[in-house]
From TrEMBL:
GO terms for biological process: polysaccharide biosynthetic process. This is DegT/DnrJ/EryC1/StrS family aminotransferase. Keywords: Aminotransferase, Pyridoxal phosphate, Transferase. GO terms for molecular function: pyridoxal phosphate binding; transaminase activity. The modification N6-(pyridoxal phosphate)lysine is found at residue 180. SUPFAM superfamilies: PLP-dependent transferases. InterPro entries: DegT/StrS_aminotransferase, PyrdxlP-dep_Trfase, PyrdxlP-dep_Trfase_major, PyrdxlP-dep_Trfase_small. The active site is at residue 180. PANTHER family: 3-OXO-GLUCOSE-6-PHOSPHATE:GLUTAMATE AMINOTRANSFERASE, TRANSAMINASE. Belongs to the DegT/DnrJ/EryC1 family.
Length: 360
C-alpha cells in the first residue's frame, strides 16, 4: 500500500545531520528544530501560526478547545471520516452531530444547513483523500459565528483556488502520522490558524495549560512536537510539492487506464481543487472480494473506511443506525484504495490494474 523506505532514502543524509544537531544540543522538546519547522510550515501554508503537537487527534481537539468549543456546544462532523475527527469533538467536551457527504466523499453543505441548531458552534471540514472540503460553501451556510475547523490530515499541500489546506477556515488540525503525504517517523501533528488568540491558547493548552513554567492558567494536556520529528518533517517539507506532483501523475495514469471500465468509478477532482491524492479511491462492485483477491497476490489495496463513523460501536449511543446517512453508507460498501505513493513504478501500476480488471 505504501513504501516509506523510498522516501527515507531520499532524505536519509539530511535527517542524520539534523539528528546529530539535536543530540549535540540535547534540545529534544520545543527546541530550535521545532521552531524552524513551525515557521516553515506556516509560510508554506500561507498562515500566521503553526503549533506542533503530539499527534493529529490532539491537534483537532486542541483546535476546538483553542477556538472556545466545549461543553454544551454541538459540532457538525461528516459521517464518512476517520473516527479521530469525531473523537476529538468528544474529547473537547462537545457533542457530535453527524451529516452525510456528497458523491465526491466531501461534507455536504446542504446537509450541514439541515442539522444546524442554536447550539451549533463549529463544523469539521474534512479534506478527505487529498482534496479540500467545500469550505467557502460551508461558510455561506453557517455564517461567521460558527467556527470552521479543517481536518487537514490527508491534504498537506492541497490547494483550493490557490489557497492551501489549513488556511481556508478559522483553525485546522493536521496529522503527521508516517503514512501521510507529509509524515514523521512516529506520531506528530500540528494546529494551524491565522488567529493569534487561538494560537496562544492552543500553545498554552498543549503545554499543561502553562505559558510560564509552573504557572498553569488552565487544565491542559501534554502534547508537544519533539525535535527529532521536526527534523524529519523539515526534510520532507522541502520535497512535498515534488512528491505531491508525482502522486497526481500516478492518479492520472490510474484514471486513464480505468476510465473506460464501467465497473470502476474513478475519483473526481472538484473544480478549483488541486488534489494531492493521499489515497486513490475507486468504487467497485463486490469490493470485499476484490480487495481480498488483490491482497492475496501481494497488492496492498485497502479500505478507507469500511463503515461510516455513526455505525461504529463507539458511537452507538448516537442512535443513528443504518439508513441515517445513505450516501456515506452506500460509498462505504463500494470504496477501495489502490496503492499510490512517490516511487510507485509504471510496472507496479500496470500489475495493480491487470489484477483489478481480472477480478471484475
Amino acid at each position: 500500500m505504501l513504501d516509506l523506505g523510498l522516501q527515507h532514502r531520499q532524505i536519509a543524509a539530511q535527517v542524520a545531520e539534523g539528528f546529530a544537531r539535536v543530540f549535540a544540543a540535547t534540545s529534544f522538546i520545543q527546541g530550535p528544530a521545532v521552531t524552524q519547522f513551525e515557521s516553515d510550515f506556516a509560510a508554506y501554508c500561507g498562515i500566521e501560526h503553526v503549533i506542533g503537537v503530539g499527534n493529529g487527534t490532539d491537534a483537532l481537539e486542541l483546535a476546538l478547545r483553542g477556538a472556545g468549543i466545549g461543553a454544551g456546544d454541538e459540532v457538525i462532523v461528516p459521517a464518512n471520516t476517520f473516527i479521530a475527527t469525531a473523537e476529538a469533538v468528544v474529547r473537547a467536551g462537545a457533542s457530535v452531530v453527524f451529516v452525510d457527504c456528497d458523491e465526491n466523499f466531501l461534507i455536504d453543505p446542504a446537509r450541514v444547513h439541515e442539522q444546524m441548531t442554536a447550539r451549533t458552534r463549529a463544523v469539521m471540514a474534512v479534506h478527505l483523500y487529498g482534496q479540500t472540503a467545500p469550505v467557502d460553501d460551508l461558510r455561506a451556510v453557517v455564517g461567521s459565528a460558527v467556527v470552521i475547523v479543517e481536518d487537514a490530515a490527508q491534504s498537506q499541500g492541497a490547494r483550493y483556488r490557490g489557497r492551501r489546506a489549513g488556511s481556508l477556515g478559522d483553525v485546522g488540525g493536521t496529522s503527521f502520522y508516517p503514512g501521510k503525504n507529509l509524515g514523521a517517523y512516529g506520531d506528530a501533528g500540528a494546529v494551524l490558524t491565522t488567529s493569534a488568540e487561538i494560537a496562544a491558547r492552543v500553545r498554552m493548552l498543549a503545554n499543561h495549560g502553562s505559558v510560564h513554567k509552573y504557572e498553569h492558567e488552565s487544565i491542559g494536556t501534554n502534547s508537544r512536537l519533539d525535535s527529532l520529528q521536526a527534523v524529519v518533517l523539515s526534510a520532507k517539507l522541502a520535497r512535498l510539492d515534488e512528491w505531491n506532483a508525482e502522486r497526481r501523475v500516478l492518479a492520472e495514469r490510474y484514471s486513464s487506464m480505468l476510465g473506460d471500465t464501467e465497473r470502476v468509478v474513478t475519483p473526481v477532482t472538484v473544480p478549483g481543487n488541486e488534489h494531492v491524492f493521499h489515497q486513490y479511491v475507486v468504487r467497485v462492485p463486490g469490493r470485499d472480494r476484490v480487495v481480498a483477491a488483490l491482497n492475496a497476490v501481494g497488492i496492498g489495496a485497502g479500505i478507507h473506511y469500511p463503515y461510516p463513523v455513526h455505525l461504529s460501536p463507539a458511537f452507538a449511543g448516537a442512535a443513528q443506525g443504518v439508513g441515517s446517512f445513505p450516501v456515506a453508507e452506500a460509498l462505504a460498501g463500494q470504496i477501495m484504495s489502490l496503492p499510490i505513493y512517490p516511487g510507485l513504478t509504471v510496472a507496479q501500476q500496470d500489475r495493480v490494474v491487470e489484477v483489478l480488471l481480472s477480478c471484475l
